[in-house]
Amino acid sequence: MSCRVLGRRVEEAILQHLVAEARRRGVAEIVGRYxxxxxxxxVRDHYEKLGFALVSADGGxxxxxLPVVDHAAKDLPMTIALRRIEExx
Length: 89
What we know:
This protein is of the alpha+beta class. The protein is built from three helices and three strands, in the order αβαββα. It is globular, with a radius of gyration of 15 Å.
């Protein structure tokens, strides 16, 4: 995700879409991993801000967990709409 959209709630809208899709498919949790690099320090706290719980930390690398049952949908100024590639052509 571009740094230009971070903080504009796009990350929250995408997470809401992922949670809805996970629930639809019977997935119990979403797991995220942050691996620090010279260019991604801006998103070091990304998972925490989105409501994920820290599972482990090792040398700067962190693993995060979000049970989809615990995620409450927010009133956001946007939604995510996906189209199949065939529909877009």
